Amino acid sequence: MKAKFKTELIDRLLRYVAVDTAAIDDSETYPSSPGQFELGNILANELREIGATDVDISEHGIVTATVEGNVEGAPTIALLAHLDTSPESPGCGIKPQIIESYPGGDLVLPGDPNKVIRVEETPQLKGMVGKTLITTDGTTLLGGDDKAGISVIMTIAQYLIANPQIPHSPIRIVFSCDEEIGKGAQHLDLAKIGAVAGYTLDGEAENFIEAETFSADMATITFQGKNIHPGLAKDRMINAIRLAGRFIDRLPWQTLSPERTEGMEGFIHPVQLEGGVDRCVVKAILRSFDSEDLKTYADLMQSQANAIMAEFPGCDIQVEIKRQYRNMREGIAKEPRVVEMAVKALERLGRNPEMKSIRGGTDGSALTEMGLPTPNLSTGMHNFHSPLEFVCVDEMVGAAEHVIELAKCWAEA
Known about the structure:
CATH topology of the largest domain: Aminopeptidase
Shape: globular
Oligomer: single chain
Mean pLDDT: 96
Number of helices: 10
Strand content: 15-25%
């Protein structure tokens, strides 16, 4: 079974990454890029060919399908992955490199010899000697995030449909769009999904169960100054660029920035600065595993804005906070079986589950808040969003085995 899965997973991944599905951040359409529709139609056709039922691709490019269960009364679970890839690195013209029986050591990527996957920076490579890796040529990302997840879901769907003697729960398959730009759950309908628990196949490495994420808000700080010819500016000009600079400098970057935090520590992270002398806008993301911290961070920014307005009479600074998503831990606690089953499935396979917290968010964050508890599972991806991205095919095989065992566990619930 492992050899068959390995061949199928490689074939699927290479086929799917050939479609450019990079999300477009400032697009006004959904999905944001036409490649997502293209890949969605490919997957919908493949699902029909393997015998899945209720196959549909919506006007928003979201693919749904069902692998019928064969145990009476077993609850339905959902498996989710996203069609888009990150816009942070080029995603067109991907040239995958298959490395059979990785010998160890650094990997120089042939399309750009300056791009090197170094063991020192990627220590997990030490445990992959003898395994099969797929990298890029160094000029693009790979798209394993999340086409590795898509490949795993498609492979286990075909396997379960072709082997009806294996007892398993009903499975709803969902391929969403624009997850990488924070819109993955925007057009998902929980009633249409119809599951008691969901799992995103969107995680790194192997044997991780990620049931905790950051809570997240977006802050938009608008600085209104006063512009006038610089030759006439004395005691009249208020430079909004200078206001924004002072504001950013006063944020506690030594203790509350991504550059200085790790583990369970949160941060305030300025991500965008636009404008001129008359008006500037700064956008900052607020992140913490404790949702209450976000209010503290917002209050801190407002207090700094007030102090600068007092220092520069006549300026105006507005701090606007937009809610993004909340720690999935809060919703998963209402349906503890969703994690218990994932743990049980790994233990049945003789593996050691590792609970991990995500310093970020997933579609599962939004879905859990909407009412479908959805932790994240490993799919063997590494260094995603980067030309140094690669997948370990052996870990993808392990992910497929985990999901099959998971569906068997739910059949016994």
